[in-house]
Amino acid sequence: MSSTHDAGGASSPASLRELLPVPGRVDVDPAEAYAYPPVSDRPWVRANMVASADGGAIGPSGRSRDLSSAPDRRIMGVLRGLCDVVVVGAATARQEGYRPVRPREVWERLRAGRPATPRIAVVTRSLELDDALLETAPEDARTIVFTVSDAPIERLERVSAHADVVIVDDVSVRPAHIVRALAERGLYRVLTEGGPHLLGEFVAAGLLDELCLTTSPRLLGVGSPRIVAAPPPAAGEAGHLSQENVPLRLAHLLENEGNLFARYVRE
Ligand SMILES: NC(=O)c1ccc[n+]([C@@H]2O[C@H](COP(=O)([O-])OP(=O)(O)OC[C@H]3O[C@@H](n4cnc5c(N)ncnc54)[C@H](OP(=O)(O)O)[C@@H]3O)[C@@H](O)[C@H]2O)c1
């Protein structure tokens, strides 16, 4: 990690301070702190989520922006710069107004030898997607749409005209379908930005390798959902609330402006 060791020093407002594993480092370089492990024979699936101190994931605005902050957006930008593809549930894409990722000058080094931006992959049954998400992506980073075989046919034609569509012959797009199809496209560094329903499916499938969790210093109360939610039952499927007990290793804990940035890796 390229950072300055300063056990007693106070961090500047813009600097990331390491609390663990080396307490006291300041000006931690997030690109190094969050580097993906070397590419292996299957994608590495990382999630990036933000929660309040009392575990809420959605603020009064109905978006996660109530929880976000300049340091959180900085980390989010670096995580996007590092990944090959951002996987997101359609409700998050609609609610948060997802568009193709815009290139950033600071990503040049991070993305050397790769397209200037990661692709967005959106998971949907309804195919209710904003035109801009499909139509404004650059040719080398076209949006990928994962859907099911009984998706509305008239929407499928429109979506297929602008995006790469992966149709899964099942009642539901499973995380295993997503991971396999991304690997077939050479997209190994996967970043999912949720939302809670999609993340819950990755956890239940045992396919989440890493959780990057920002804890924002605020309380949202009992009305706010958590960062994972039960998947709504698809037609022909019984809904179930899965319970897991998966051990994680805390790879690092960083701090800036009272926000905690934990990187948990599956043991
Ligand atoms: N705190 C955070 O870090 C964070 C991060 C992301 C989002 N959020 C918030 O979370 C909320 C949205 O999240 P959410 O959990 O409600 O929804 P979500 O997981 O973003 O998306 C759910 C939608 O994705 C599609 N989908 C999910 N699983 C599918 C499957 N197996 N097969 C086919 N399609 C599937 C369906 O789309 P269709 O409806 O199109 O069929 C479903 O309605 C927003 O308020 C957002 O602001 C918070």
Report on the structure:
With 267 residues, the protein is an alpha/beta fold. The chain has a single domain, classed as Dihydrofolate Reductase, subunit A (3-Layer(aba) Sandwich). 21% of the residues lie in helices and 24% in strands. The protein is built from seven helices and twelve strands. A ten-stranded mixed beta sheet has the order 2-11-12-10-4-9-5-6-7-8, sandwiched between helices. Strands 1-3 form a two-stranded antiparallel ribbon. Strand 11 (248-256) and strand 12 form a beta hairpin. It is globular and about 55 Å long. It starts with a strand and ends with a strand. The model is unreliable at 1-12 (pLDDT under 50). Bound molecules: NADP nicotinamide-adenine-dinucleotide phosphate (NAP). The site of NADP nicotinamide-adenine-dinucleotide phosphate has 32 residues, from strand 4, helix 3 and helix 7.
What is the CATH fold-level name? Dihydrofolate Reductase, subunit A
The sequence of SSEs as H and E is EEEHEHEHEHEHEHEHEEE
Q: Output the strand order for the largest sheet.
A: 2-11-12-10-4-9-5-6-7-8
Largest sheet: 10 strands, mixed
What is the rounded distance between the termini? 21 Å
Name the CATH class: Alpha Beta
- Give the uncertain stretches in residue-range form: 1-12
On the 0-100 scale, what is the average pLDDT?
92
> Going by CATH, what is the homologous superfamily?
Dihydrofolate Reductase, subunit A
